[in-house]
Write a structure and sequence with these properties.
Layout lengths: L10 H13 L9 E13 L5 E8 L8 E7 L2 E3 L3 E3 L2 E8 L2 E15 L2 E15 L5 E7 L2 E2 L2 E2 L8 E5 L2 E9 L4 E9 L3 E12 L1
Antiparallel strand pairs: 1-2, 1-15, 3-6, 4-5, 5-7, 6-7, 7-8, 8-9, 8-10, 10-11, 12-13, 13-14, 14-15
Length: 201
Amino acid sequence: MPCPRLDRMNALTLTLCVAGLLLSTGSGRAASVTGQARVVEATTFDTGGASRTTVLSDTGTLNDEIDARDASASAGDVPSLLASGVLHATTIAVPEQVASEASIADLVITAGGMRIGADLVMARARAAARSPDTTTVAIEGLTINDVPVEVTGAANQTLQLPGGRIVLNERQNSSNTVTAMHLVLDGVADLAIASATAKLH
């Protein structure tokens, strides 16, 4: 059964859809799984170089091969840095399969004299026995200082900024981890937006 648009899904609907995707490809036993989803990890730096990290909507890691975790919030806020609408993170495992997803709506980041916005930022990771690991990213309505930005879908698409960069669809293949948007402003802030991990061992 097809799932509705991600930006229209509530936590229960999303969890059921992910479970359905997993169960549709069969079952068995896996020795162990790694699954985690996190919507925001934001580190800021003061003028002396000291850092402070804020995490929003983090599922934590799966305990075993039959487990599910969810972390949601109606809005997100990192003072003087980030504001958003709904945040959602889910990770779920059944024997021989694991899937994770993180999403954020109505994102606004204000840092380094720039305003970065997006209607929706989403990352998914999936692992299943006898199938290749997969990651997918969706970014809708991305703008920098109100100028639309083309999202190509290519892995590790990098946008250069004054004093930093944004990496879209940032992948770590060894752990099957994907981060939809990674903003680095040197000496100012480091933000990972919508990260998902799914791996069988």
